[in-house]
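User: What would this chain look like folded?
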Amino acid sequence: MMTEGDKRYIKRHTQKSLKELNMTFSPQAKFPAYYKKPSPETMKKNREYFEANFKDEIKWLKENLQTLTETKNKFMIEMYTILITGNRKITTKMIDAIRNGIKRCNNNPRFNDVVRAEQEAKLKPILEKIVMVERLAEKKNDKGQAFVRSIKQYVQMNYRITKKQMEGLNKVYKRCSEDLFKGDDNEGK
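Assistant: Here's the prediction, encoded as structure tokens.
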């Protein structure tokens, strides 16, 4: 339970922090008061510099922009907008991060067709087993049908399956296959 002193402290503290916020941010923008927007000439110089020095990175980002938005890779999209608009300078750390991100994405099946083909070949038997478990669950009207479908969708989108997902599939399979012939024994007698 809050005491009267606690309430006064919270009220005072929030008023103080609001005053500090109003001092650091300008009222018309979400930028701090000390932020100066670059001039059009500076932005043009930055764009020309980026186009001359980072052709490969801009080209790769432009080609894979759709996949980046689907995977919600906000950092790479932000870096692409900076390279295209020229609204700020690019530091060496930023360039290293962009290049490392591109390398990482090139090893990802969503971006690289060769890696995608390899992963699909590896996952084909697993997907067949998932489909089999899905059919068993549907046949038994099992409560894990939605779970199996979500795993199937995850595997198709991310080209991988986790250990816990495999364990969950095994549990659904055991639950559905244990009493597979249970009803047949009673009918024959």
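The two ends are 69 Å apart (CA to CA). If you want, I can go into more detail on any region.
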